Description:
The protein is α/β, with parallel strands linked by helices.
Amino acid sequence: MRHLLTHDGLAAVDALLQRRPLLAFDFDGTLAPIVAQPDKARVGPGIARRLAALAEWLPLAVVSGRALADVRARLGFTPQYVVGNHGAEDAADARAAAAHAQRLDALRDRLARDAPALGGAGVVVEDKGASIALHYRTARDRAAAAALIDGMLAAPDPALRVFGGKMVVNVMAADAPDKAKSVCGLVARAGCDSALFAGDDVNDEPVFAAAPSDWLTVRVGRDDPHSRARWFLDGTAEVPVLLEHMLATLQRGAV
């Protein structure tokens, strides 16, 4: 990965803008800082203002691990597209999202039975409909909490997909689209042939890995040296700098 806020990086941004791409962003850890209490996460007013302005120039999407209604309420602006549950919940296909949610019913029953052990370990179960998240960020012994989750999910279930994140383990239907499929679908839906995608976590890596060479993929943070993103930003504090640069480029008619 190379730092995006360099001469070469910003030149790559400007070149992409000439192609009128889809602009797509993860939410937690990208547009909003990760916080100990997920319910406190919000897009700051400065970022929301810049994103709203960019959405007047180009199609813009937010693709989040949160439930669709949850992430919408935290944006402070209205993008053209919002997709939730790691790609599994798209307002354009509510029936599919309901089917993906139904495939988690057996796991819901098991988590209900194991609720005392999970609660005792400090694991917070978040049922988002089309996915379930088991958070252990606030556990007193994170290693023990993670081990408990791993043990509960150790038996393979071909109907489910399990993947990690930043102090969280996520579960969703195996046949649900991931973020890579979702972003590719949005590019086509928006009538674009390229995209900028920015994300910060394990569930964003499928987009980085699947992106065509002419897309611009950005990892927010350099905590994963094995990331498949081509560029990085040094945390959420650099996101508004990128947004401001894109706005300035568009407004001065350089694309």
